[in-house]
Amino acid sequence: MNSVPAPWVRTRLRTAPVAALALALLVAVTACLAAALPRAVDRYEDAGLRRSVERARPQATNVAVFVEPPSPYMSQQRRELALSPGRLGMQYAGLLRAVPRPLVADRTQSTYGVRTAVPLQVPDLWLPRPSGLPAQFSLAAQQGVGAHAEKVTGRLPRATAPVTAQTRDVEAAVTAETAKSLRIKVGSVIHVPGERRPALAVHITGIVTPRDPQGPYWASQPLLRTPSLNRVPGGGADAAQYWLGALLLAPEAAPALLGTPSAAWRYWQLAPADLHLHAYQVDRLRSAVASLESGPALRQVRALTDMSATVNTGFDDVLGSYTGLRDGVRPLVAVAAFGTGTVAVVVLLMAGGLAADRRRAELTLLRARGASLPGLAARLFAETAVVAVPAGALGLAIALLALPQARTGQAVASAAAVTLLACLTLPLRAVAAHHAVRIHPGRGDVTAVRPSRRRTVAELTLLVVTLGAVETLRRQGTDGDQLAALAPVLVGVAAALLLVRLYPLPLRALARPAARLRGTVAHLSLARAARTSASTALPLLALLTALTTAAFGGSVLAGVHATRDRAALLTVGADARVEAATGALPTALPDRVRRTPGVRGTAAVSIEYQAKPGDQSTSVPLVGVDPRSYAELASRTGLGAFGEGELTGRAADGTVPAMASASVASRYGTRPLAVRLEDGGTITVRITAVRSRTPAVIGDDFLVVNRTALTPATRRPTALLLTGSHLDVPALRRAIGDSAPLQLRSAERARYADSPLQSGAEHVYTAAVAAGAGYAVLSLLLTLLRTFPERTALLARLRTMGLPRSAGRRLLVLESLPQAGLAALGGTLTGWATIRLLSPGLDLTTVAVAGHQAPVGDAALRTDVTSLFLPAVTIVLVTVGVAGVQAWWTGRRGTVGELRAGDAR
Question: What is the pLDDT of residue 857?
Answer without folding.
Answer: 58
